[in-house]
Design goal:
eight-stranded mixed beta sheet, 10% strand, two-stranded parallel sheet, 6 helices, elongated
Length: 328
């Protein structure tokens, strides 16, 4: 009787037996799925990118003029460095809501819309270094509540308002080196309670009253700014090359302290009220003066009429004063 037998060179390897026993969809479809994520332009992989297991989409050095299409929640790391993305429109990454790391270095980036990063609530690392940013709009980074590292190094920023960063409770590293910052605005670092690394070298620091908040922060956090001893003033002339850490708070005693939030609230609250009160007082005084003037004129006219009625009418036999003077 014929019985099945394996070739004479021995039994099949255990791996082949395992594959034969597995259901066919598992071992026939798995390679196709892997290929779809790993090749450019394939299903679930952003256009013009090469994807790798784990959710990394590498779109570097492809001369892309804009953020590629096809982003989705499978993308965890998006590498867009060394492209030509000069502007970020609203919701540029809204389809990649699970993104953890975004690299936009060296794109010649000049403009970022205030809502460009909407939908990236899970983002932890953002690199915008080596671009041409001169200003950022208030609220630009407000949606990034999970952000832990932000690099704005090697741009052209001359001012950074507190409203640009907003409150980033988890931010631990902030890179601002090699910009055009003469000072940091008061309150900029107040919304960053977890900050433990601040890089500031390569900025034209102007040692005046505007530098007071930064000097105070450096004194209170000596370990968090590893380059603090190398930060030098470039102006004014008498303070050139003076280290920022050499200025105690007493050096700013001649500077007016900024108003607290409560004081500003009182000013903004009382300002309109006092203006309306002043306007009402002016109207009341004007009305009073007008009424007094009108009353005075009425009294003068009444007095004139009374004087005319009291003057005697000369009789027919009485010569008028003019005639008497002519006879004389």
């Amino acid at each position: 009787m014929w019985s099945p037998s394996f070739p004479s060179w021995g039994p099949p390897p255990p791996l082949q037996l395992l594959l034969l026993l597995l259901p066919w969809p598992v071992w026939t479809q798995a390679p196709a799925a892997a290929a779809s994520w790993g090749t450019p332009g394939a299903l679930d992989c952003p256009e013009a990118c090469v994807c790798a297991p784990g959710g990394q989409a590498n779109c570097s050095e492809r001369a892309l003029p804009a953020v590629p299409g096809g982003l989705n929640r499978r993308v965890r790391v998006l590498l867009l460095n060394h492209n030509r993305v000069h502007a970020l429109p609203p919701g540029a990454f809204v389809d990649a809501g699970a993104l953890l790391r975004l690299d936009l270095r060296e794109n010649g980036l000049r403009w970022v819309h205030a809502r460009a990063f909407w939908g990236l609530g899970a983002l932890e690392q953002l690199d915008l270094s080596a671009n041409q940013l001169e200003a950022l709009l208030p609220g630009t980074f407000a949606p990034l509540r999970a952000l832990r590292a932000l690099s704005l190094a090697e741009n052209r920023l001359a001012r950074l308002e507190p409203a640009v960063l907003g409150a980033l409770p988890l931010l631990r590293a902030l890179s601002l080196q090699d910009n055009d910052l003469p000072a940091l605005a008061s309150g900029l670092l107040a919304g960053l309670p977890a900050l433990n690394t601040l890089r500031l070298r390569g900025n034209p620091w102007t040692c005046g009253c505007a530098l007071r908040p930064l000097c105070a922060w450096l004194r209170g956090h000596p370990r968090h700014a590893p380059e603090a001893e190398t930060l030098l003033c470039v102006s004014p002339g008498r303070l050139t090359l003076s280290p920022l850490t050499a200025f105690p708070d007493a050096a700013f005693s001649h500077c007016a302290r900024p108003l607290a939030a409560r004081d500003l609230a009182v000013i903004y609250g009382l300002g309109p009220v006092s203006f309306l009160a002043s306007l009402a007082a002016c109207l009341a005084l004007g009305s009073a003066f007008t009424a007094c003037g009108a009353r005075h004129r009425r009294r003068r006219r009444a007095a004139a009429r009374r004087q005319q009625t009291r003057q005697p009418d000369p009789g027919p036999g009485t010569a008028s004063p003019a005639a008497t003077a002519a006879q004389a």
